[in-house]
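Worked Example 4.2. Consider the chain below.
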Amino acid sequence: VREFTSSPFCSYTRRGCDSPSRVVRGGAWTDTDPDALRVTIRAKTSPDTRSPAIGFRCARDALY
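Applying the procedure from the previous section yields the following structure tokens:
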């Protein structure tokens, strides 16, 4: 599944972005285009979007 992140969806050149949209990365089992399956693919979505093709990963800060 695509990975939902907490990062705001903004241009890479824009600092301090406060966009309400969030970044979704990667591809999903629903994609038919092989190019869409790359982990470098990024798209935007609303934080309240629900889809069987979007998941998330729990990550822990290495500084503990």
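The chain has a mean pLDDT of 87. The first strand starts at residue 2 and ends at 8. Compare this with Example 4.1 before moving on.
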